[in-house]
Amino acid sequence: MADTPHSVGDILDNLSEQASDGKPVSVGDIAHTFGARTFGPAIMVPALLELTPVGAIPGVPTTLAAIIALVAAQKMLGMSHLWIPGFLKRREVSAEKMDKAVGKLRPLAKFMDKHFHGRLERLTHAPFSRIAAGVVILLCCTVPFLEVLPFASSGPMLAIAMFGLAVLVRDGALMIVALLISAIAMLGGAFWWGSGGEGSG
């Protein structure tokens, strides 16, 4: 059983351990690394993976967004235990790709763990965390449309990752920043999609 993570570095350590035997890592394996503090890591890890080369695989951003939306919906409903359907649990990524993704995320994790922690903690609990979950679902809904444009889905995923980090480390100030980035990401995505549509006409 993986230790309960309390930082982004802890999560990456657990993911690296999952991939250490060289076997493909499934969504179920990744969920195992979340420990008891489920909601934050469960939305943050898929969002961070989308920002790595793993997210360049066609269909992966949309799959990751579906997983995140499922988790966020359960948070909105107040469920205490994370449920993931079997067909998603069985989705796999190679150990090599997972190792590369973890390596790419190490510098970002170090920065996050150093600068984000314990401010305005009240904003990371209900009802604010459920409001954040609703915003996360809206962001996820934009990903399938943005995936067809280069790097466009990274904006919503960055905002989602920040929401997850805010809940993980109980940082309400970061929650506010994540809300602002969400608004920018959705407006930017709409503009980017509109520009792409005009360019293809």
Automatic annotation (TrEMBL):
Q: Does the keyword Transmembrane helix apply?
A: yes
Keywords, sorted A to Z: Membrane, Transmembrane, Transmembrane helix
Kindly list the residue ranges recorded as spanning the membrane.
Answer: 54-73, 128-145, 176-194
Task: Offer one Pfam family short name for this entry.
Answer: ExoD
This protein's record includes keyword Chaperone: no
**Protein name in the entry:** Exopolysaccharide synthesis, ExoD
Query: InterPro entries given for it?
Result: ExoD
